Amino acid sequence: MITDLDLLTIDYELIEKTDINTLLKYSLLPIKEYDIYILVASTLNNLEIESIENIFSKPIKSIQIEQKTFDFEILHSKSKYDLFIKAKKSLLNKEDIINNQSHISHFLETLFTIAISLNSSDIHIESLKNAIIFRLRIDGILVQFFRFDIELYPIASSSLKLFSKLDISQKRIPQNGRFSKFINEKDYDFRISILPTITGESIVIRILDNQKAFLGLQHIGFCKDVYDSIKKNINFSQGMILITGATGSGKTTTMYSILNELDKKKKKIITIEDPIEYNIDGVMQVPINEEIGLTYDLVLKNVLRQDPDVIMIGEIRDENALKIAIQASLTGHLVIATLHTNDAIKTINRLLDLGAKPYLIASVLRLIVSQKLIRVLCDECKEKVILDNLTTYKSVGCPKCNFSGFIGRTIITEHFEFDETISKMVNEKLDISDILSYANYKSINDNAYGKVLDGTTSLNEYNLYEI
Ligand SMILES: [Zn+2]
Questions:
Q1: 276 and 410 fall within a common domain
Q2: On the CB side of 46, how many CA atoms lie within 13 Å of its CA?
Q3: d(CA 443, CA 415)
Q4: Residue 377 CA, ligand 1 centroid: distance in Å
Q5: Confidence of residue 99 (pLDDT cuts 50, 70, 90)
Q6: What is the Å distance from ligand 1's center to 396 Cα?
């Protein structure tokens, strides 16, 4: 039976103490030393128990783990050992707050450094019944990286609250904040959200990387059609551009990259965001704060009195916001907004559902871009699969890709540019399929399948993301 190593707290000192050749020879990870035995994990089901007992001079109990799990642990054993030692030190002298603060700070900074080096977008810190776990979101997928005794939780939580100037004593209501750290010669901003749960708290830290947010439109990975269409439409002085997609589809990066393309010197650009993720010089960014009544509607109405050229709306959420946004885009403003829909064409239906009149949609909309992110196969280890004369690639896993088989993600899109004929069709409430055949529409699925055929991604990944 294969055991899930994520459910065990590993003593990394024990791994560090054991000769690496022994570990590799037996595919062995010592997990924990008890009074009368040592618990070890191995990928082998016919482990040479006697030889291993000789090495440890103690009886062993063994569990079986997957090869990928073993490889991942060996690859990261140094970082995990580092975290382990710092976590242990944080638990010593709990009363000596000043000294302790420095230990836990070192622990957290090591964690941030590891998360950044592995290209994580978020760090999840969760208190379970008996353990604290640290998970990293890499290319959209959560991976547990470290697990420790639950005693570490209150210390880590307090320290993070101190970093972000939140109320340390408050454990019963959600808190949000942010903090900055200088890591690997670079400034990083971290946005933190703390949510009370039945077993303690769930903490999520979003890593904000300025360099990634301002990639520049040409580096996001748009195909030429979409790139050209965005470039063309952002130069108009009025109308509406919508970027749509699910949460985590990279809409924010696209929005910020569009803002960066605009001429900030000659144009007044105002954004309405909830929350503001990155500061951009030369752009007036307004944060929403519903708690004090600073709602989208209120801000939007007042933004119009500011003589803006371009208004960027974080997300159109309701009828009223849409009404004001349409009004703005009819009266000499370019409105760029995001909407939570799965594909470009459904966006028109969503706008109709939100009460927009077809003739208004037809007259203001210039472009809808719908986007998703799909994982890119690791070049080092991907394997060719030929089935029915069709050549595709599948993921395997190697040290370069953290044994996930993938490195990074690429954008897949569908876009829908409005011309006179399409506007007329929308206005006359023609069937969507007529519009699609007129526009020679290539769907997001077609584009994703193209990425399977050219070996960028796997068929499994495609099936996972199919709408
Ligand atoms: Zn690989």
A1: yes
A2: 0
A3: 8
A4: 8
A5: low
A6: 7
Residues 105 and 67 in one domain: no
Cα 383 from Cα 379, distance rounded (Å): 9
The domain that holds 169 is classified in CATH as 3.30.450.90
Residues 369-422 have pLDDT tens digits of 999 999 999 999 999 999 888 999 999 999 999 999 999 999 999 998 988 888
Q: Report CA(125)–ligand 1 centroid distance (Å).
A: 27
Ligand 1 ion: nearby residues, β-carbon < 5 Å:
378, 380-381, 398, 400-401
Residue 205 pLDDT greater than 80, yes or no = yes
Q: How far is the CA of 180 from the centre of ligand 1 (A)?
A: 32
What is the CA(407)–ligand 1 centre distance, in A?
7
**What CA–CA distances, in Å, run from 204 to 34, 43, 103, 134, 386?**
34, 33, 21, 10, 42
Residues 165, 263 within the same domain: no
Q: Residue 52 corresponds to which amino acid?
A: I
How far away, in angstroms, is 381 Cα from ligand 1 center?
Answer: 4
Helix then strand count (H, E) for the chain reads 18, 18
402 CA → ligand 1 middle, Å: 7
Query: Rounded to the nearest whole angstrom, what is the distance from the C-alpha of residue 384 to the centroid of ligand 1?
Result: 13
Domain identity same for 137 and 286: no
At 125, is the pLDDT very low, low, confident or very high (cuts 50, 70, 90)? Answer: very high
Cα 454 to averaged position of ligand 1 atoms, centre (Å): 18
Q: Which of 160, 180, 208 is the last residue of a domain?
A: 208
Q: Give the domain-ending residue among 185, 208, 231.
A: 208
Shared domain for 45 and 157, answered yes or no, is no
Handedness of CA 70, 75, 81, 83 (dihedral sign): negative
* 73 CA → ligand 1 middle, Å: 16
Distance 433 CA to ligand 1 centre (A): 41
Total structural domains in the chain?
A: 3
Domain CATH number, residue 3: 3.30.300
Q: The whole model's pTM is what?
A: 0.89
CATH value at residue 380: 3.40.50.300
- What's the domain range around 228? 212-465
Q: From the CA of 274, how far away is ligand 1's center (Å)?
A: 37
H-assigned helices in 331-377: 344-353, 358-364
